[in-house]
Every structure is written in structure tokens, then in C-alpha cells.
Amino acid sequence: MKIAILGAAGRMGRKLAELAPAAGLEVIAKVDVADGFDRDWPSETEGVIDFSYHTALPSAIDKAAAEGIPYVIGTTGVTPGEQAHVDAAAKKIPVVQSGNYSLGVNLMLELVRKAATILGPEYDVEITEMHHRHKKDAPSGTALMLAKAANAGRAEIGAAVDGFTYGRHGDIGERPDREIAIHALRGGSVVGDHTVMFAGELERVEFVHKAQDRAAFAAGALKAMVWAKGRASGIYSMRDVLGFS
Ligand SMILES: NC(=O)c1ccc[n+]([C@@H]2O[C@H](COP(=O)([O-])OP(=O)(O)OC[C@H]3O[C@@H](n4cnc5c(N)ncnc54)[C@H](O)[C@@H]3O)[C@@H](O)[C@H]2O)c1
Prior knowledge:
By secondary structure, the chain is of the alpha/beta class. Helices cover 33% and strands 23% of the residues. It folds into 2 domains: 2-101 and 214-242, NAD(P)-binding Rossmann-like Domain (Rossmann fold); 103-210, Dihydrodipicolinate Reductase, domain 2 (2-Layer Sandwich), CATH 3.30.360.10. The strands form 2 sheets. It has a 6-stranded parallel β-sheet, sandwiched between helices. A 5-stranded mixed β-sheet has the order 7-8-6-9-10, covered by helices on one side. The protein is elongated and about 60 Å long.
């Protein structure tokens, strides 16, 4: 399968290009705004993996939809207006979108959802994430997915919240019941650490994931590309690719 990588000069793009051959994928276009990279993909391209910047997503996915080729989105920080392009494209082509393509985080999403149902709203949910100093969006797409998983687990017992709390500062008063809070740390070269804490009166339960190498994300995204080939149009998650649902 001949693929294009969008954001090919970046940290993830380079890792994807390195691992693509082992996944049976041939990279025929390395697209990036950086010097020495392709500005577009050629007509024989059979799929696109996008780990670039959210502003690049609308025009790129519109083009893939017009060409009828599958699209794998790793890029995070996507705005509602940009997401509308993704949703429209998914009516024509298979789109896989995930804030995290690692097996471990996708397992953690399942466990967090289950824990939130079993432990209930008496256990306060606090999520922390830490990433390298170059990361541009906050909180991470993964932290948001973990918060949504906890909230989905709470929804099963009628205890979901409408929105999340992002950090705390100043005279904020007592913690509201059912609050789900997310805190973003930045520094050094951290690839990606996430902790979901369920804090009860008598005990705390913590789920921790630490990515040691970007290959954990790249391998999952390449797997998603292979999986997406020949699928019906629609928007899919890594849950679908891994067969959890
Ligand atoms: N879903 C996941 O599993 C996962 C894992 C890691 C990173 N990410 C996300 O992937 C994205 C890239 O991460 P990174 O660490 O590789 O970032 P990076 O900054 O190292 O690389 C991004 C690349 O995109 C390029 N780019 C910017 N605008 C572009 C445009 N209009 N067209 C083409 N290329 C463009 C940049 O020049 C850069 O080379 C981020 O949104 C990050 O949050 C997702």
C-alpha cells in the first residue's frame, strides 16, 4: 500500500517513515512545510497518515475525501470547525481518529471506564499528563480521551458531568461533587505520561501509563492505516482497530 505522511519532518513523522516498511507500507510522499519535503502527495497515493498540526487538517482531509483514500489522524488539538471537515470527509472515506495510538493507552481507556462505573462519583477523578517542552496543545488528546472514558463510565450509573475542569488557581472553593479535572505539565523530553487517579475517602486507585518511545504510537497508527484500507466510509477509533468494541 502506497501512503503519504503529513508532518513527515516532525518527531512522529520521522518515526512513522522509519517503521512503515515493516508494516508493509511504502511511503511515497513525505509532506511537510519544512525545507526539502514534499508539498503534496501524488495521485497514486492510497492512504494518508497525518501527524502534523491541526490547521493543516481541513484542506488535507478534504483532498483525501475527494480522492476517496483512507485517512488516519494522529494530530491533536483539533478545533470544532476543523472537526467538521473530518466528520464531512468520513461520509465519503474511512477515517481513523485517535488522540493516542498505543496499545497500552487504549487498554487504559477500557480500565478507566470500568473503574469509574464501579467506584462511582464518591471517588474524585484527577488526571495529570506530562509531555516534552515542545508540545503545543494542552491538555493532551490522550488526557481528554481518559476524561471522556471516566465520564462514560460515570454515565452508566447516571453520574456524568457536562464539562471538565482544566487546572486550578486562586480562591476556588471546595471541590464540586462529580468534578473530573485535568492538569497539564510540560518539560524536558518526556514522550508522554498519563495518570488517572480515583481519590476516595479511604483509599486511592491510580492508573499510570508512560510511553517510552514514539514507536508505541507510530506502530498503532501504521496498523490503523492497514486496517482502514477497503473499509466502508465512517469515523473509526483505535478501539475499532484493536477489536475492543
Ligand atoms: N495520536 C497519537 O498517538 C499522537 C502521538 C504523538 C503525537 N501526536 C500529535 O501529533 C502531532 C505531531 O506531533 P509531533 O510531536 O510529531 O510534532 P512536531 O512538531 O515534531 O511535528 C509536526 C510536523 O508538522 C509539520 N507541519 C506543520 N504545519 C504543516 C502543514 N500545514 N502541512 C504539512 N506539515 C505541517 C511541521 O513542520 C512539523 O514537521 C501533534 O498534534 C501531537 O499532539 C499524536
